[in-house]
Amino acid sequence: xxxxxxxxxxxxxxxxxxxxxxxxxxxxxxxxxxxxxxxxxxxxxxxxxxxxxxxxxxxxxxxxxxxxxxxxxxxxxxxxxxxxxxxxxxxxxxxxxxxxxxxxxxxxxxxxxxxxxxxxxxxxxxxxxxxxxxxxxxxxxxxxxxxxxxxxxxxxxxxxxxxxxxxxxxxxxxxxxxxxxxxxxxxxxxxxxxxxxxxxxxxxxxxx
Length: 208
Prior knowledge:
- The chain contains 10 helices and 5 strands.
């Protein structure tokens, strides 16, 4: 993708990117992506019930201008019947009268009915297992090297990027890493793109 194509697709002609430096790498997203992404992350963080969290998913899924990269993942609880059953079982363990049905009968219900029964139960993004991977990492944040490299125009990537030779059980190598902050800023400035350095919203959105 050329710089002009990236300006149209990723920057939406708002020629500003947000940049942070962490773990000896430069991570960046278009400002418009940060603004859209932080909106949904904060809504998830504010959700107190399964119903609240599902409303965030519904808004996100219907949003034609939703962020393309972060949050990386927003759960549709209608597709998580096993987790809903776990919540219902825990609620029954705490109060046998919480629901009018026996658990065996509840386990035979369809997904929509399970959601209706569990929608008022508590939700906490930081402790919700369907929002975490096997290494207990919150799935919404993604891997910074991947989401940075995803949108960087090819001509800039080939000029500034260092091939990613990293490895690990939970690590997926990007094509390129960006290691020199000064050169990174200068190159984008050369293409008429402004840089917001150490942007607090990108720090929050990336969980760093």
